[in-house]
């Protein structure tokens, strides 16, 4: 029997990349590859990259530089770059780093096996097409390996919104939704393999409009259909645009038991002037009204968001407006970034703010968000909440799981196994997690 070849995948960026990496590993499984946790013993290294900010893109080149020695010691080692940097800078990568054998964009990775075979014959391969064929269908025949309790499932890709700062519409292309039937099949398959919680993924997941029985399905319809799968306990989705929260989806948060009370709803800025310059096509008041409707539907909803500070022309007052919006909304968690110039996007052409102004604003904004996050987390003490256990903790008999609101919860839970969903009383709040007791 021949030794299996070893594949090392390093994943950067968003959850969709995590999902894509799993699918790429499965595709290459057909070529006799098994995954390894270290690049040192790999026969193939694949970097699944992110292009969203400058730093993320630069990391790829410094990581590739580190593989020089490995390639020199093992000339058969294949090195590939996948994901959004591959899409945006395909040829440039080949030019800047000659040790790369193949470059594959996020829409073409079902062609990886062919590309790997080519690379084996010493032919470099580049594929950054947006092909007609459905990559998800091509990758269907997957091994029925057991899975952990929580899984991602991509239902939609791409974005038509063209926010002035963002590369996604260029790297991931136009919005495309997968047909509902295929998503339901994949979800049933995941549940058979042990999954109890599915997070539906899309760059604009709530813009989902897939072909389903009887016509076009929106995200709410898809969630309701998924909720009928026995054994599936929890449904989440990320990431959403405020303009795509339709009535049915807002209502589902109040009526669908399996839909978790947590919503990631990026607003980016609290200033109408900046929102306009960002091409967000909504105002701060639109956002407030939407949050009110969401909380009417689901009063215990925890909100999360994304914020950009230091967008071109952002004044002190614009920034204060963002802080004010955060104070009014109260976030359970949030991600915040300094504006990063992305070549090819409209905002890259505008006058940029000094780095020290961005630094200072980011620090203040993160201070406020951390304070809020901590306050909401502390308020969990004394409450009873569902916890889906995922793995053993550091202490003997301890298990770690995720609350309905996505907090990490540590519980002394002798005999409880990963995948069990139990009611837990929260007794303590630490810096990054909660402690609870089974009830
Ligand atoms: N600079 C900084 N942050 C950005 N994001 C997207 N593009 C940029 C950029 N050019 C952030 C947004 C988005 C998240 C995924 O990344 O907040 O919601
Ligand atoms: Fe980027 Fe805006 Fe589309 Fe989100 S909605 S992916 S920030 S262009």
From TrEMBL:
<comment type="function">
    <text>Catalyzes the methylthiolation of N6-(dimethylallyl)adenosine (i(6)A), leading to the formation of 2-methylthio-N6-(dimethylallyl)adenosine (ms(2)i(6)A) at position 37 in tRNAs that read codons beginning with uridine.</text>
</comment>
<dbReference type="GO" id="GO:0035597">
    <property type="term" value="F:tRNA-2-methylthio-N(6)-dimethylallyladenosine(37) synthase activity"/>
</dbReference>
<dbReference type="InterPro" id="IPR002792">
    <property type="entry name" value="TRAM_dom"/>
</dbReference>
<feature type="binding site">
    <location>
        <position position="84"/>
    </location>
    <ligand>
        <name>[4Fe-4S] cluster 1</name>
    </ligand>
</feature>
<dbReference type="InterPro" id="IPR006463">
    <property type="entry name" value="MiaB_methiolase"/>
</dbReference>
<feature type="domain" description="TRAM">
    <location>
        <begin position="378"/>
        <end position="439"/>
    </location>
</feature>
<keyword id="KW-0949">S-adenosyl-L-methionine</keyword>
<comment type="similarity">
    <text>Belongs to the methylthiotransferase family. MiaB subfamily.</text>
</comment>
<dbReference type="GO" id="GO:0046872">
    <property type="term" value="F:metal ion binding"/>
</dbReference>
<dbReference type="Pfam" id="PF04055">
    <property type="entry name" value="Radical_SAM"/>
</dbReference>
<keyword id="KW-0963">Cytoplasm</keyword>
<keyword id="KW-0411">Iron-sulfur</keyword>
<feature type="binding site">
    <location>
        <position position="159"/>
    </location>
    <ligand>
        <name>[4Fe-4S] cluster 2</name>
    </ligand>
</feature>
<feature type="binding site">
    <location>
        <position position="14"/>
    </location>
    <ligand>
        <name>[4Fe-4S] cluster 1</name>
    </ligand>
</feature>
<dbReference type="InterPro" id="IPR038135">
    <property type="entry name" value="Methylthiotransferase_N_sf"/>
</dbReference>
<feature type="binding site">
    <location>
        <position position="50"/>
    </location>
    <ligand>
        <name>[4Fe-4S] cluster 1</name>
    </ligand>
</feature>
<keyword id="KW-0004">4Fe-4S</keyword>
<dbReference type="InterPro" id="IPR006638">
    <property type="entry name" value="Elp3/MiaA/NifB-like_rSAM"/>
</dbReference>
<dbReference type="InterPro" id="IPR023404">
    <property type="entry name" value="rSAM_horseshoe"/>
</dbReference>
<dbReference type="Pfam" id="PF00919">
    <property type="entry name" value="UPF0004"/>
</dbReference>
<protein>
    <recommendedName>
        <fullName>tRNA-2-methylthio-N(6)-dimethylallyladenosine synthase</fullName>
        <ecNumber>2.8.4.3</ecNumber>
    </recommendedName>
</protein>
<dbReference type="Pfam" id="PF01938">
    <property type="entry name" value="TRAM"/>
</dbReference>
<feature type="binding site">
    <location>
        <position position="166"/>
    </location>
    <ligand>
        <name>[4Fe-4S] cluster 2</name>
    </ligand>
</feature>
<keyword id="KW-0408">Iron</keyword>
<dbReference type="InterPro" id="IPR007197">
    <property type="entry name" value="rSAM"/>
</dbReference>
<keyword id="KW-0808">Transferase</keyword>
<dbReference type="InterPro" id="IPR005839">
    <property type="entry name" value="Methylthiotransferase"/>
</dbReference>
<dbReference type="InterPro" id="IPR020612">
    <property type="entry name" value="Methylthiotransferase_CS"/>
</dbReference>
<dbReference type="GO" id="GO:0051539">
    <property type="term" value="F:4 iron, 4 sulfur cluster binding"/>
</dbReference>
<keyword id="KW-0819">tRNA processing</keyword>
<feature type="binding site">
    <location>
        <position position="163"/>
    </location>
    <ligand>
        <name>[4Fe-4S] cluster 2</name>
    </ligand>
</feature>
<dbReference type="GO" id="GO:0005829">
    <property type="term" value="C:cytosol"/>
</dbReference>
<feature type="domain" description="Radical SAM core">
    <location>
        <begin position="145"/>
        <end position="379"/>
    </location>
</feature>
<dbReference type="InterPro" id="IPR013848">
    <property type="entry name" value="Methylthiotransferase_N"/>
</dbReference>
<feature type="domain" description="MTTase N-terminal">
    <location>
        <begin position="5"/>
        <end position="121"/>
    </location>
</feature>
<dbReference type="InterPro" id="IPR058240">
    <property type="entry name" value="rSAM_sf"/>
</dbReference>
<comment type="subunit">
    <text>Monomer.</text>
</comment>
<keyword id="KW-0479">Metal-binding</keyword>
């Amino acid at each position: 029997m021949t030794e299996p070849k070893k594949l090392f995948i390093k994943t950067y960026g968003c959850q969709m990349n995590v999902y894509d990496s799993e699918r790429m590993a499965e595709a290459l499984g057909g070529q006799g590859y098994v995954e390894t946790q270290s690049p040192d013993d790999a026969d193939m290294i694949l970097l699944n990259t992110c292009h969203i900010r400058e730093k993320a893109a630069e990391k790829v080149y410094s990581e590739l530089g580190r593989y020089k020695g490995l390639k020199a010691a093992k000339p058969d080692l294949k090195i590939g770059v996948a994901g959004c940097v591959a899409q945006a800078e395909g040829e440039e990568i080949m030019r800047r780093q000659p040790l790369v054998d193949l470059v594959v964009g996020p829409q073409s990775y079902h062609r990886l096996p062919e590309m790997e075979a080519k690379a084996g014959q010493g032919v470099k391969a580049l594929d950054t097409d947006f092909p007609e064929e459905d990559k998800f269908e091509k990758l269907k025949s997957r091994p029925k390996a057991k899975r952990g309790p929580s899984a991602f499932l991509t239902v939609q890709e791409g974005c038509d919104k063209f926010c002035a700062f963002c590369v996604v519409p260029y790297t991931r292309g136009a919005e495309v939704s997968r047909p509902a039937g295929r998503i339901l099949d994949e979800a049933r398959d995941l549940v058979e393999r042990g999954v109890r919680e599915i997070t539906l993924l899309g760059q604009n997941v709530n813009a989902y409009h897939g072909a389903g029985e009887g016509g076009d399905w929106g995200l709410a319809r898809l969630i309701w259909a998924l909720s009928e799968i026995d054994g599936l306990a929890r449904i989440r989705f990320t990431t959403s645009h405020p303009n795509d929260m339709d009535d049915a989806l807002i209502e589902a948060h109040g009526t669908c038991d399996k839909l978790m009370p947590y919503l990631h709803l990026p607003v980016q800025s609290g200033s109408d002037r900046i929102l306009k310059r960002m091409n967000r096509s909504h105002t701060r008041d639109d956002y407030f009204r939407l949050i009110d409707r969401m909380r009417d539907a689901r009063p215990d909803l925890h909100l999360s968001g994304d914020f950009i500070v230091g967008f071109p022309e952002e004044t002190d007052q614009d920034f204060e407006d963002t802080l004010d919006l955060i104070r009014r909304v109260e976030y359970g968690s949030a991600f915040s970034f300094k504006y990063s110039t992305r070549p090819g996007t409209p905002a890259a052409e505008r006058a940029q703010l000094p780095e020290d102004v961005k630094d200072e604003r980011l620090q203040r904004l993160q201070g406020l968000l951390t304070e809020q996050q901590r306050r909401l987390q502390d308020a969990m003490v004394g409450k009873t909440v569902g916890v889906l256990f995922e793995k053993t903790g550091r202490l003997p008999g301890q298990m770690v799981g995720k609350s309905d609101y996505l907090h990490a919860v540590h519980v002394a839970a002798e005999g409880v196994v990963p995948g069990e969903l139990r009611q837990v009383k929260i007794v303590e709040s630490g810096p990054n997690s909660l402690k609870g007791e089974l009830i």
